[in-house]
Amino acid sequence: MPVSLDKELHEHHLFRAEALSETMADCILVGLINNMPDSALVATERQLFQLLDTAAGSLRVRLKLYTLPNVPRGDWGRQYMSRFYSHIDDLWDRDLDGLIVTGAEPRAPSLTDEPYWRSLGQVVDWAKENTLTAVWSCLAVHAAILHLEGIDRHPLGRKCIGIFEQVKMMDHPLIKGVPSPMGVPHSRWNEVREDALASSGYSILTKSAEAGVDMFVKLQKRSLFVFFQGHPEYEAQSLLGEYRRDVGRFLRREMDAYPTTPKGYFDEQSEQLLADFRTHALSNRCNELVARFPVERVAANLKNTWHSAATRMYRNWVLYMSGRRSPRFESSSPEKRLRHFSLTSPV
């Protein structure tokens, strides 16, 4: 199999025994800093592991798990991270080919007030010097852009959630072979805007008329930073789980307004089931209704229509790392390496 975890994680649910014979020199080394809440930790690992596994082809990738301090967690989450994740301090003295940093559930009105803000800024600065490329997802995008450029995120009037068609805005090796338009899942309350990004030298690769910018890139010293405001790694039922969670919060009176139904995600029959449930929930708001949410009936009709495009993008990302690891490119500039990758990568 192309992707494996570190040898010491033999009790982890994604560990593969056949990876024990591999040497680190044979592998593309990728770090995953997983900031997702406890309820999404395992799912996020699985989604990214399987996406990389499909995208890697014959290339070998070894995944190393890292945790940021001060990300709010319960007892189970702290125990899980302690068991399977390395502390972020273990990252500073090593080089990785690639890094993936996930988002986190926002708690504070300002990102600079989040308890992990300082540590995440250190990761951004480290990645510029010690990776070939780094992927930033959702809230991690907003934090990285604020730290790098001082560009603040903007709150949306309502949650941006659903599958939104993205159009390619330029030719770029990371989206070579990716269809246009393509659907990408989004789930967020804030955005960074195209005009601010463009004026700071970012290349906009894909965007949506409804959801705004999705994928954009910029060389940061020796590393190509790749940003996704959406979630190409999501599985078919990921947005359903988030929507059901938000409905539960509304029923428990943790949210004032009934949550926005994900756009472009459900079929007509499921839309009607969810509309009927919403009507009932608004007239009889109580936590007991969560058990009657039609999750199984709706889930049966969901399809992962974005998987092929997501695999192609991550395939291109893995190829970029593989090309830059070649010794004959070590002394060349990042711009020259990117041009070479564009000319030699298969469609």
Could you please describe the fold and organization of this structure?
The chain is α/β, with parallel strands linked by helices and 347 residues long. The protein has 2 domains: 3-235 and 304-344, 3-Layer(aba) Sandwich (Rossmann fold), CATH 3.40.50.880; 238-299, no CATH class. It has 10 helices and 11 strands. Strands 1, 2, 3, 4, 5, 6, 7, 8, 9, 10 and 11 form an 11-stranded mixed β-sheet that branches. The longest helix is centred in the C-terminal third of the chain and has 19 residues, at 307-325. Mean pLDDT is 91; it is low at 328-332 and 343-347.
Key features?
single chain, 347 residues, alpha/beta, Rossmann fold, 2 domains, eleven-stranded mixed beta sheet, 10 helices, 11 strands, globular, disordered C terminus
